[in-house]
Input
Amino acid sequence: MSHDHDHEHTEPPSDLELRVKALESLLVEKGLVKPETLNAIIETYEHKIGPRNGAHVVAKAWTDSEFKQALKNDATEAVASLGYCGRGGEHLQVVENTNDTHNLIVCTLCSCYPWTMLGLPPTWYKSAPYRSRAVSDPRGVLEEFGTRINEKSIIKVWDSTSEMRYLVLPQRPEGTENWSEQDLQKLVSRNSMVGVELARSPEQKDKGDK
Output
């Protein structure tokens, strides 16, 4: 399974993606949906609802101990206090990375994903190889993303469902003790909130998701 993100868009679309595109074309052709409406929805999830919401939650947890505890106690309620609510009433659970434990999120049955926090799921998250190997060989999957976890650390894999979605709270990078919440958000990537990567280092803060 390859996770070379610079080339993931060269993969042929899945059968499900082809069906969705055909349905979109039919709806537009029948005049039931306007192309600009579809584009607006996609734009919203990619750039407004997208990973920036999750980054806001993570950065606030890094800087606000009370919010962090509330997030661990009841993530659904905690993120709702910031104005973020799930699309279908699903619950959210936050799992925290530590020096001894690393968390990885997957959906083995389909591609359940915390859209409100992370926006549209990436192609690799929905792929069958990721969904199977995240469970059978999580350490190998992490290494393919360039993420190496201490051999003594435990890797916990969390299987999302339509009722429960998970979000990884990555460890705060060293050297950011005096950073503002806004600056810390730049270190939080979508991939770090899925668990396939760590939070960015201060030197990587301007690097975007692929």
The longest strand covers residues 91-96. The chain has two domains: 12-47, 50-204. Residues 1-12 have pLDDT under 50 and may be disordered.
